[in-house]
Amino acid sequence: MTISFEGRVLLLTTPNTSYSAYLGADDDIPIHTYWGPRITPADAAYLATSTAARLADEWPSFRSAANGHEEYPLDGRLQFGRAALSLEFAGVRSTEWSFAECLVHDDRHVELRFDLRQRDVSVGLHYRLYDDSDVIDRWVTVRNDSPSDVVEVHRLDSAAWVLPEQAQYRMSHLTGRWAAETRLSRTELSEGRFVLESRRGITSHHANPWFAIDDGTATEEHGEVYSAALHWSGSWRLLAQRELDEPVQVLFGWGYEDLGPRPLEPGEQLESPVSSGLFSTGGFGTASRAWHAFALDHVLPRSGETRPVLFNSWEATGFDVDEASQVELANQAADLGCELFVLDDGWFGQRVNDRTGLGDWTVNPNRFPNGLQPLISKVHALGMGFGLWVEPEMVNPDSDLYRAHPDWVYHFEGREPALMRHQLVLNLARLDVAHWVLGELDALLSAHDIQFVKWDMNRPFTDTGWPAEPSRQGRIWFDHVTSVYAIIDALREKHPGVAFEACSGGGGRVDLGMMARTDQFWASDNTDALDRRYIQHGFSQVYPARTMSCWVTDLPTFINKRQVPLTYRFRVAMAGVLGVGGDLTEWTAEELELARELIDQYKQIRPVVQHGLQYRLGEPGRSASAVQYVTRDRRESVVLVYQEAQQYDSTPRPIRLQGLDPAASYRFDDGTTLSGAALMAHGLTPTLTGDYASQLIRLVSP
């Protein structure tokens, strides 16, 4: 890993890749010149001057001066594409800058600083490298050094990722909706613009802030892939733009298009979220494993911990909770082998349904006359940790909190705010509201011996007004998210023994920004095992199994009426962090015994699943496919094989494994031994019959 800046050529070198940009003369537009396998400083210098000369010789009429090669495009002058940076000064929305200096903050972090002409404003383009990863972090800072003038920030993207010039571009991305999150899609990028965004104030169920681009020929195992993700849990925009004969340029950053300017006060500095980029060879599978390693090694806190098997009360009791019913469920959950008991919604205020009580974070005395501690003590006595559901960013109009502070929600003066799920969004851009939320949760955790918090967020932003501070209204979309981050960070510091799960009506807040301060994600409210196969397949493109919470629940699910065998449901949920969410009091003795056996199986394979390398062996569908996990030393492997539907009397084709040591021998549970070479070249033949069939295969190299 090295950082070089000579002759105004920036060269970043990771263990296997290089990234380069050229600043040129003072009046030149900084251009991107290379991203791919490692090159030398001499190579970078040649590419810089030759690319700049070629762009200067191109016919200039009606074209941008850099023609889509801008390292970070500005709003103004001879740049006609969409801008990564758009600032307004006293009604003038045009930006010009000149290079000031290269600041090497340490051996991993470099900043290119530019000064805006005729303005007391500076812009920093930041880059950060890692010794053990090819991921490159990028972000941008804007500082207003004017003694009196406010700068309106209309756009501040974290990065502009420029792809190599090639004949074809195909973008892989994750889209969906509630109960159908992270569905993998692939789109050919033609001339024009392709936009993915969230306008909801959260990451959203409808699109996820990650992309991967190849030349249309990459497969799971072969091909060059360029990918990037955004560390942000609010509204965001990804914009890919391409002109004829020019490369694709992807702008990536917080805030949706035209959300309104964010004022930058005199003396204030605004820092964008981080966008991380990755070039890899070896297809989509290699790219995913690189993202997983980066997330586990550099993003996820306490990633070396093994997550417990949890039981959650929601699908069993809904809002109808009390101490007796929860103790009964806890006894059965412990008997199954669950290690964490989570009390979901309905324990606080007057929360008897979803119309009342939200925001009143005191224990309901009618349901828990002696508070929560007796239940917590009984759960601990059963050998389980105790967890609690909260939704701190929300409030019901029918609550003590709203009656006392109706001005604490987002709203416009003289207009009734729109309800969703009978609730409103608290204005966490207000410091007093954020401090109140932190105080309530801190008091709750201080008063109870709690090991786990499920942080939910069940509606998007609307009516984003701040009548008391109209000049600060443009800060809402950014400051709400940073307040959520600050609250969780403070709680983790004060209560280091508490783990957090990020939830937003399922997978509405799955991103690297939230991952950095939580321990796992609730990937979807949809627990139907077949639907989950597709959701989990997309999730795995960038996020590791260690962060994916997966439950086994009752049939039929509230999503659909599909009947799926219990074993198949468990083995789908075994692909991540296993949990149970059904009404155990209604399970038969046979179901409880089978669940007990399957939970024990999961505990045996859990270290490999949660901490191993993941390989996708086929895609969900009619034919058999599998998800494989391999320890980093390649001594152990776990294969979860699924067959959604059998056609005719056909048996599944052999499934070729990956990631094994070809020279090693691997023993199956039945004593059969095969070489890694045979398992990868020929594969193993699953023994699957019928619909919704599954198989768990364990391999160990003695």
UniProtKB/TrEMBL annotation:
Q: Name one GO molecular function term.
A: alpha-galactosidase activity
According to its UniProt record, the EC number is: 3.2.1.22
Which Gene3D superfamilies does this UniProt record tie to the protein? Aldolase class I (3.20.20.70), alpha-galactosidase from lactobacil brevis (2.70.98.60), Golgi alpha-mannosidase II (2.60.40.1180)
Could you tell me which InterPro entries the record lists for this protein?
Aldolase_TIM, Alpga-gal_N_sf, Alpha-glycosidase_related, GH, Glyco_hydro_36, Glyco_hydro_36_C, Glyco_hydro_36_N, Glyco_hydro_b
Q: Where is the Glycosyl hydrolase family 36 N-terminal domain?
A: 30-259
Q: Name one GO biological process term.
A: carbohydrate catabolic process
SUPFAM superfamilies reported for this sequence: (Trans)glycosidases
Task: Give a single Pfam family match.
Answer: Glyco_hydro_36C
Its protein name is Alpha-galactosidase
Species, as recorded: Kribbella caucasensis
